[in-house]
Amino acid sequence: MRVALWFLLLGVSLAWGHRLNVLVEEEGAELVVWAYFKKDSPCMECQVVLKNAQGMIERELLTDALGYARLTPLSSGALELIVNGGAGHQKSVTFSYAPPPQEAQEREGVLGAPLVLVRPEAEVSLGGIAQGMALLLLFFGALWWVYRGRR
Q1: 57-75, pLDDT tens digit by residue?
Q2: pTM exceeding 0.70
Q3: How many domains does the chain have?
């Protein structure tokens, strides 16, 4: 029984350590999306969906072998980017997009535009905090249960 409990705790900790990360950069009128699990593990052929403020799908494509995808939004304002990495790995990033002025687009071809990082909003929820606290309670409860008779 104790061995099964240790394997359960080990499996839970490994599952929490493998998460999907998404970075969105604005490059002129395009958005460059980079999806990865760790720095050396890109999210290859992951589904990328761009939704507008009304929840309508504007673009849908797959990442390349390096985890990158390029897309041009059809509308401006609040947009939601959803990356589905398979096996339950999904990340949603909400941000505001405004296309560059026409003059900047014309200049861009000559000078090149710098990349601007669009930071995703923090995804902190009470449910996530409660799950973390429950996991800690389960872990320390299991340790107490295993070592309770060894005094």
Answers
A1: 988 999 998 889 998 888 8
A2: no
A3: 1
